[in-house]
């Protein structure tokens, strides 16, 4: 399934690792602690994987 939020989403990875997949791209966007990303409203995306060895903690802010 895909997330498709009606608001913009700013995401920061606080711990662990994760990879995001975007519907319009073939590659994965890998995030490490301290990395952040702006996901525009309406952008179809999903979490492809998270670190199996360490808890993955996100901070996500949704705004218009």
Task: Map the helices and strands.
Layout: E1 8-15, E2 18-22, E3 28-31, E4 36-39, E5 45-50, E6 57-63
Antiparallel strand pairs: 1-4, 1-6, 2-3, 2-5
Task: Describe this structure as you would to a colleague.
The chain has 64 residues and is mainly beta. The protein has a single domain, classed as Jelly Rolls (Sandwich), CATH 2.60.120. 0% of the residues lie in helices and 53% in strands. The chain is built from no helices and six strands. It has strands spanning 8-15, 18-22, 28-31, 36-39, 45-50, 57-63. It has a three-stranded antiparallel beta sheet with strand order 4-1-6, with no helix packed on it. Strands 3-2-5 form a three-stranded antiparallel beta sheet, with no helix packed on it. A hairpin with a 5-residue loop joins strand 2 (18-22) and strand 3. The protein is globular and about 30 Å long.
Would you kindly provide a brief summary of this structure?
The protein has strands at 8-15, 18-22, 28-31, 36-39, 45-50, 57-63.
Integer tally of domains: 1
Q: Ends: how far apart?
A: 23 Å
CATH class: Mainly Beta
CATH level-two architecture: Sandwich
- CATH homology superfamily name: Jelly Rolls
User: How helix-rich are the residues, as a percent range?
Assistant: under 10%
> What is the number of strand segments?
6
| Topology-level CATH name | Jelly Rolls
Secondary-structure-based class equals mainly beta
Global outline: globular
Main pleated sheet = 3 strands, antiparallel
Treating each run of at least 4 consecutive H or I residues as one helix, how many helices?
0
């Amino acid at each position: 399934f895909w997330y498709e939020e009606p608001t913009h989403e700013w995401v920061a990875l606080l711990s662990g690792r994760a990879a995001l997949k975007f519907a319009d791209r073939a590659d994965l966007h890998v995030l490490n602690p301290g990395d952040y990303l702006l996901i525009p409203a309406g952008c179809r995306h999903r979490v492809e994987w998270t670190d199996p060895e360490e808890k993955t903690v996100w901070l996500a802010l949704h705004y218009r």
